[in-house]
């Protein structure tokens, strides 16, 4: 009876996924958004939290969010992956330093090997199918590592010239967002949007890019030299930002450019690749 019930639930889940995908039109710009197990369970309970800010950014410019989580059945996940037009990897926990051939630093925080592996799988699929990719915070970091780069495992430890509270800070014992300027470099696709602007970004991280990954360039830094933006040099759209445009977009419309740029790249791919329509 228990086995029958489990199979019944699986069939129901498959049907729900098919219906969810079926609701999406072929012309829809389907952006995969990665959820951790905790975020996925919170979503199912009706309390999704801040990750829905990414959804708002996607939908503000005509995209449709597709939920991706390693917590889902692998068959269901594969069905979703095959329908994607683009990928957004959000912020989260530390990347396991074993992936860039380093031992764990004493200040390394929580890692999630299952999430690392899942996001590697998604990036591999996106690269193979020329899907545009946007990585935010941890998303930028795992993109850099995937392409052979490395990370500074703890900024306060390894960058003594950086003020300890400039990239995240503590208030009344609680770790919260900090804010700092970002200097966008001329090589960036976003330079014309922000040149001469006083771009102050919300930020929450203790790690950052160290060695830049293959076929990436640094296109933005904070005044203390920390890498804040990386962009791919190939024809494929791949962008990583260390700060949080999804949070800033709530009060500053300029930050919508990061989502708009992703959606525009997805639209361009659909128009130029008949098999993606």
Structural features, described:
This protein is of the alpha/beta class and 277 residues long. The protein has one domain: Rossmann fold, CATH 3.40.50.880. Helix content is 36%, strand content 21%. It has helices at residues 2-23, 37-44, 52-60, 74-82, 113-128, 138-146, 155-158, 191-194, 245-248, 257-272; strands at residues 29-35, 63-69, 86-89, 133-136, 151-152, 169-171, 174-176, 178-181, 183-184, 200-203, 208-209, 216-221, 227-232, 238-241. It has an eight-stranded mixed sheet with strand order 2-1-3-4-14-13-12-9, sandwiched between helices. It has a two-stranded antiparallel sheet with strand order 5-11. The longest helix has 22 residues, at 2-23. It is globular.
Helix content: 25-40%
- One letter per element, helices H and strands E, the order comes to HEHHEHEHEHEHEEEEHEEEEEHH
Which strands sit side by side, in order, in the main sheet?
A: 2-1-3-4-14-13-12-9
Please state the second-level CATH architecture. Answer: 3-Layer(aba) Sandwich
Query: Mean pLDDT, as a whole number?
Result: 91
> In one word, what is the shape?
globular
Residue stretches low in confidence (pLDDT < 50, at least 5 long) are: 8-20
- CATH top level label: Alpha Beta
Would you tell me the structural class of the helices and strands?
Answer: alpha/beta
Total strands: the figure is 14
State the distance separating the first and last CA atoms. 44 Å
Calculate Rg over CA atoms. Answer: 19 Å
The number of distinct helices, counting runs of at least 4 residues, comes to 10
- Give the number of domains: 1
Task: Please outline the major beta sheet.
Answer: 8 strands, mixed
The CATH H-level homologous superfamily? Class I glutamine amidotransferase (GATase) domain
Task: Please report which band the strand proportion falls in: under 5%, 5-15%, 15-25%, 25-35%, 35-45% or over 45%.
Answer: 15-25%
* CATH-defined fold name: Rossmann fold
């Amino acid at each position: 009876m228990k086995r029958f019930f489990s199979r019944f639930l699986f069939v129901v889940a498959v049907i729900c996924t098919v219906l969810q995908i079926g609701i999406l039109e072929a012309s829809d710009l389907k952006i995969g958004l990665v959820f951790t197990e905790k975020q996925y369970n919170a979503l199912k309970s009706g309390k999704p939290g801040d990750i829905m800010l990414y959804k708002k950014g996607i939908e503000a410019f005509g995209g449709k969010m597709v939920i991706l989580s390693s917590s889902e059945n692998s068959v269901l996940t594969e069905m979703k992956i095959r329908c994607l037009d683009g990928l957004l990897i959000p912020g989260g926990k530390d990347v396991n330093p074993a992936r860039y051939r380093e031992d764990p630093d004493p200040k390394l925080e929580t890692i999630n090997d299952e999430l690392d592996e899942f996001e590697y799988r998604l990036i591999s699929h996106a690269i193979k199918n020329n899907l545009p990719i946007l990585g935010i915070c941890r998303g930028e970091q795992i993109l850099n590592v995937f392409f052979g780069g490395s990370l500074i495992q703890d900024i306060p430890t390894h960058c003594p010239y950086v003020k300890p509270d400039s990239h995240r800070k503590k208030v009344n014992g609680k770790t919260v967002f900090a804010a700092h300027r970002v200097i966008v470099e001329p090589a960036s696709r976003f330079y014309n949007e922000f040149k001469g602007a006083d771009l102050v970004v919300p930020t929450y991280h203790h790690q950052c890019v160290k060695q830049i990954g293959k076929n990436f360039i640094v296109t933005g830094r904070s005044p203390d030299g920390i890498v804040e933006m990386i962009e791919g040099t190939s024809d494929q759209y791949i962008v990583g930002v260390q700060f949080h445009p999804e949070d800033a977009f709530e009060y500053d419309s300029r930050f919508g450019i990061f989502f708009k740029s992703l959606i525009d790249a997805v639209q361009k791919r659909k128009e130029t690749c008949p098999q993606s329509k």
